[in-house]
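Batch job 17 of 40 flagged for manual review because the log was empty.
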Amino acid sequence: MTDSPKAFFTLPEQQGITRAIREAESQTSGEIRIHLENYCHGEVLDRAAAVFRFLKMHRTQLRNGVLFYLSVCDRKFAILGDIGINQVVPPNFWDEIKTGMQLRFREGKFSEGLSEGILRAGEALKKHFPRQKTDVNELPDELSFGGTQDEERKRKMSDKG
């Protein structure tokens, strides 16, 4: 495995995932982010929550951000919704999306599985948080990467504070 999780997806795959985010967000005020790192230290949901805070996803106006967190070397992933979206989707909603993604991942179709999960999350966001005329894109659409030595130092610092 390479030192950088950025190499997990090819540039065209990264662009396709970003297009899926933009398509999903085009009809909602919700925000979707993707974060990849090589290793997940600790429980995957705990790490996803730390990344959620690090990316400042909890600062959206309607608290309707969704994070897809992938630890590529460990082959772990989590989907984490903010409080606004979690209050309106069924309790097993994220598990259903995760199960669909896992089927694609088992076929080695990681970018397709991720894109499909993003679009499914976008459908729920659209239903509960339709796009308004005044809506602005509150968070970047591009993929976020961690897991390099510099990012690992930042992670340790953010986990302490």
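Reviewer: the log was empty due to a logging misconfiguration, but the result itself is present. The radius of gyration is 15 Å. Unflagging and moving on to job 18.
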